[in-house]
Structures are given as C-alpha cells and as structure tokens.
Design goal:
347 residues, alpha/beta, TIM Barrel, 12% strand, binds dihydroflavine-adenine dinucleotide
C-alpha cells in the first residue's frame, strides 16, 4: 500500500479516473435517498474492481479514512491495538488482511504472516484469536492448498491454546468452506476451528441445523457480499428477521447443551436488543455467548456493552491489503462514504 502523498505527475495521470470515481460516489450518494440497494451494489462492485483498487490505494488521503477501520500495516501495530482494547475489557479477533489471491506463493506468504501473528499473540499474551479467509489461503487456486495452509495455522494455534475462525466469503465459496471446515474439525480432530453463518443466505437455516447438531463455534453475521436474489434475501427486513431467527436457534437450550458457542456479530441495536431480550427471557448467562463488532465502528457502544457485563470481542484487521475490506465498510454506511468523498476534496 502506498501511504506517501502522490506526486503531481501521478496525480495528473490518475485525474480522469479519480473524477470518475468521485462522480460515481457523489451520484451514488444522491441516489442513495431513492435507492439504498443501488449504492450498496455500486460500492460492492467497486470492491472487486482492479482499476478502482489501484486508484483508491494510490491516493494518500484514502488511507486517512481507511485507517479508521484498520489497526495499521504491521503485526506490531495490530498487537498494540489489541492490547489497548484488552485494557478496556474488550477481547479481540485479529485479521491479517488479504483475499482472493491468485498465486500459490501469495497464499503461502499469507499463511506465514498468520503464523507470525499467532506467535506474537502467544508471546505478547493479548486476549485474541485469529480470523482467516480461505481465499487468502489459496482456495481459489486449489482446495488442497487452502486446506494445507489452514491445517498449518490450526496446528500452531492449538500448540498455544488459540483458536482460528474461518470468515465466510461470497456464496460461491460456502460449500467449499464448510467442506474444508468439516475435514479439519471432524476428519482431523481440530476443535479450535470455527465458522461463520450469513443470515442473508437462504441456505443458512439448513446449515445452522447441522452446526447445532455438532456443537460448533459459530459467528452469526448479516452478510457483506453482493449476492443475487436466487441465493440471498434482497430486503434488509428479511435479513434482519433471519438474523434473529438464527440467533435464537443458536442460543437455544438444545444448541448450548451440545456445546454451541455463539458470537453475535452486528452493530445493529435492533439485533443486539433482540438477542439480549431472548437471553434474559431464557435465563441464558452473559458468558454463554458474545457480541462482536468491527474495529472503529460504534466505539462507545462497544465499551458500553462490556461495561454492562457482556462479553465483547472486536474484529481488528491490519495489513496492506485493505481495499476490499474498506469498500465493504463503505457499502454498509453512507455516512462513511461522505467522509471519504470530503477527504478527497480536502486533499
Ligand atoms: P447494518 O449494516 O444492517 O446496519 C443496521 C444498523 O446498525 C444501522 O442502521 C445503524 O443503526 C447501525 N450501524 C451499522 N453500522 C454503523 C456504524 N458504522 N455506525 C453507527 N451505527 C451503525 N460478513 C461476512 O459476509 N462474512 C464474515 O465473515 C463477516 N465477519 C464479520 C465479523 C464481525 C465481528 C462483524 C461485526 C461483521 C462481520 N461481517 C462479515 C459483516 C456483516 O456481514 C455485515 O456486513 C456488517 O456487520 C454490517 O451489518 P450490521 O449487522 O452491522 O448492520
């Protein structure tokens, strides 16, 4: 990632593209009032665009906005942020940013960086586990490559008593992700691996059934990718209803007695309150589940929940490959987009 200010020459070269991106963003913001889904789709499409990535990451002020959501570039910066959060009573999930690698060398390099991260978590004693993406470990190159890389991570993590959660990516990867998860968890006995369920996918109702059956370690999210209506709810209200339904199933007596541990990952107060109400009504202790929020989002709420005795974990990304993660955060929150656009003008 280039954090240095762009030169006059490079900026001139980028100008038409920058204006295009700016116009797209501003037009998007105006249209947002009429069609929230349209803006979300535009930003999620840009998150996969190579030219948009080059343009945004090559423009210094973009980092100023992105760094609100990202702990830094190095493992030491990530550990320092984890330590600060721990001091406030917040647990951490560390994520070495990267996804959709196309070369085996990149996948292996990511694995090595995450091994280093596990070493540093152990040595520093911070209260943190690790989140990984299979596309970062090479699943789009070969399933076996990702399997082997994940096995190496789980082995190192287990030797330190640490856990590794597999983030869930686009719907085309869900079957493969669960396949690799099952092979490592059941085939090879790794009990330190967890998965993610996306409430917007229709299939999640079915997936939650078998995850409960096996007493899995599950993070429930709404889902952050651009998905067609053939596989995912298009309306926020439907996703929200599914989120609450799935949370209640994963918190049920049956699920808890089988060993399910649920992480409720959302910034949405309506979801948080629904889970709190369900837990209170069913006398579920606060330490039987946890809330998870993203680094830099709703900081006061994070601390408030912790001060009320809830277990709260903050997902902390770091590294140089921040572009797609950042664009997904913009897609979720138009106010962040506005902040981004005004920074372009100030630069
Ligand atoms: P949503 O975006 O629906 O917003 C609802 C309401 O929440 C808003 O109206 C507002 O009140 C409040 N809110 C949201 N953002 C806010 C902000 N920035 N400031 C103030 N209020 C805000 N996705 C995925 O597909 N795979 C994964 O593995 C993960 N992993 C993951 C881990 C963790 C810890 C979290 C928190 C999220 C993920 N996600 C994810 C992302 C997830 O799928 C989803 O896209 C985002 O969490 C946004 O959805 P929310 O539930 O936060 O609310």
């Amino acid at each position: 990632m280039n954090k240095t200010p762009v030169t006059a020459t490079s900026r001139t070269r980028q100008t038409p593209g920058l204006f295009f991106l700016l116009s797209a963003a501003i037009t998007g913001y105006v249209f947002y009032r009429y069609s929230e889904g349209w803006l979300r789709s535009l930003l999620l499409s840009l998150s996969r665009s190579i030219w948009a990535r080059r343009m945004v990451t090559g423009f210094g002020p973009a980092w100023r906005v992105a760094s609100r959501f990202i702990a830094g570039e190095s493992v030491e910066e990530a550990i320092a942020v984890a330590r600060q959060l721990n001091a406030k009573g917040l647990k951490v999930a560390l994520d070495y940013l990267g996804e959709s690698v196309t070369q085996a060398e990149e996948a292996n390099a990511a694995r090595d960086q995450i091994l280093l991260l596990l070493d540093r978590i152990h040595e520093s004693g911070v209260d943190a586990y690790v989140s990984v993406k299979l596309s970062q470990l090479g699943v789009k190159i070969a399933e076996n490559l990702a399997l082997e890389n994940l096995r190496a991570l789980l082995t190192r993590a287990r030797s330190y008593g640490l856990r590794v959660r597999i983030d869930m990516e686009e719907s085309a990867l869900v079957d493969t992700t669960f396949d690799i998860y099952r092979r490592l968890r059941h085939g090879e006995g790794f009990d330190n691996v967890g998965v993610v369920i996306q409430a917007y996918l229709y299939r999640s109702e079915e997936d939650v059934r078998w995850l409960i059956e096996e007493g899995a370690w599950v993070r429930l999210v709404k889902g952050a990718y651009k998905e067609p209506p053939t596989v995912a709810y298009a309306r926020k209200a439907d996703t929200d209803a599914a989120f609450i339904r799935l949370a209640e199933q994963l918190l049920s007596e049956q699920a808890r007695s089988r060993g399910v541990h649920l992480a409720v990952a959302t910034h949405d107060d309506a979801m948080i309150r629904a889970v709190q109400r369900y837990a209170e009504t069913h006398h579920i202790p606060q330490d039987a589940y946890e809330f998870q929020l993203l680094y830099g989002i709703r900081r006061e709420r994070q601390e408030q929940l912790a001060s009320q005795g809830y277990c709260v974990r903050i997902y902390v990304p770091y590294g140089t490959a921040w572009y797609p993660y950042f664009m997904r955060r913009l897609a979720e929150r138009p106010a962040n987009l506005w902040f981004f656009v005004t920074n372009f003008f100030r630069a």
